[in-house]
Specification:
59% helix
Amino acid sequence: MVAVASAGPEVADEAARLWGAGRLDEAYFLDRLAAAIAEGLLVHVSSAACRSLVPRRERLLPHLSPGCGDWDLATSAG
C-alpha cells in the first residue's frame, strides 16, 4: 500500500507568496500547519488500514517521509 497526503498546492503557493512579501513568520507557520495536516491524514489512513489487516494477521510497517528519519533520498530519487 502506498498513501500520499498533501494539504494542497495552494498552501505552497500561499507560503511562497508570504515569504516573498517578507512575512516570514506567517509563511513558516503556514508551511508547518500544512505538514501537520498531511501527517494527520496519514495517521488516519494508517489506522484504517491496520484495522482492515488485523483479521488477516497482516500489519503495516512504519511510514517514512522523504527527508525524514530512515528514508534514503539517494536511492529514492531515481
